[in-house]
Amino acid sequence: MPELPEVERAARLVREVALHKKIVQIETTEDSIVYSGTTHTEFVGKVFYIELDGIGRMPVLHFGMTGMLQIRGKKAVHYRETPRKASTDWPPKFMKFILHFRGDESGEITELAFLDARRLGRIRLCSSPLTEPPISTLGFDPLISMPTLEYFVKGVRKRKCPIKALLLDQSFSAGVGNWVADEILYHARIHPETRCNALTDDQIVALHRQTSEVCRIAVEANADDAKFPDDWLFRHRWGKGKKHTMKLPDESPATIKWITVGGRTSAYVAELQKLSQAMTTGITRLTNCVQADNDSESELTPLSDSDNEKKEKPIRKRKTQSGSSTRSAAQSPAKRRSTRSRADKQSITLIEDIKDEQPQ
């Protein structure tokens, strides 16, 4: 999902091509919509909006998982996980709308398209973007409204959740997504599962500093990962299970591990981001308790646990003239005896199982 650096890059792009120009047409349906003109483009966290002249509502956009912008004649600005086989075809594939901007002096038309392959992006029209959802529900923006250390400490200390989960909470820190949170925790030397109320003073100071620094550096690089520092975890966190060349400060090989925290896959360096002994013991006990609960439910493996496992069809039996149950009346006596023997054993086993399950 595009995060704060990618959204700021998009906001910069709109400023470069559309600032002080008029929107003369919008391609979304057969109707044309004419706005007055753009005065500014702002963003908060993962949301950005276009401020317009005149009276009316303003577009507020969220990229979702794969949203991006594209200028006609240029390739789309991409997200790290998006395939880079970009095209300059127009109108572009997965286009949701196209804004036509016209400059007052030159009269030249610039076309800006909003693309979204997965259809998870959001476009809203708000009269007052900053005082209406979704922006009004967001927490601080690490780039434009980073809180003081004192305020930050209070916000962290009162939580008991894992620190990675808190960083992903947009009502706490707007714009911090999965890879940004991992990068922050790596540079702060904090394990993703560390509980907020268990962080030391030094760890919170480092967390406060790195939350601001990581976002600042990523934005200064215009979200171009090729320009990110060589010592960033970002360069090695992609491709779980693949070989990497990351080194520790002493030049020895680093061990990158992946765990799930806050519902997201988290990458961390085992040698530098360690849980305290108390935290490790607590997590181990919790894991053992969950395992014990699961084990006590049933010793049988549900059929649904395996996609390849198929239910066995029950054996259909026909009654013979003698009343005995057998697969076929044409079976030989030896086979009939063998069938009855197996059936008798199964019946005895079933009766014993039922007796064991009855309350004493």
Automatic annotation (TrEMBL):
Record's keyword annotation contains Flavoprotein: no
Pfam families reported in the protein's UniProt record: Fapy_DNA_glyco, H2TH
Compositionally skewed regions (Polar residues) per UniProt: 294-305, 321-331
GO CC annotation terms, alphabetical: nucleus
One of the GO BP terms on file: base-excision repair
PROSITE patterns xref list: FPG_CAT
Keywords for the protein's UniProt record, in alphabetical order: DNA damage, DNA repair, DNA-binding, Glycosidase, Hydrolase, Lyase, Multifunctional enzyme
GO molecular-function terms, A-Z: damaged DNA binding; DNA-(apurinic or apyrimidinic site) endonuclease activity; lyase activity; oxidized purine nucleobase lesion DNA N-glycosylase activity; zinc ion binding
Ranges for domain Formamidopyrimidine-DNA glycosylase catalytic: 2-121
Reaction catalyzed: Hydrolysis of DNA containing ring-opened 7-methylguanine residues, releasing 2,6-diamino-4-hydroxy-5-(N-methyl)formamidopyrimidine
Family: Belongs to the FPG family.
Name of the featured protein: Formamidopyrimidine-DNA glycosylase catalytic domain-containing protein
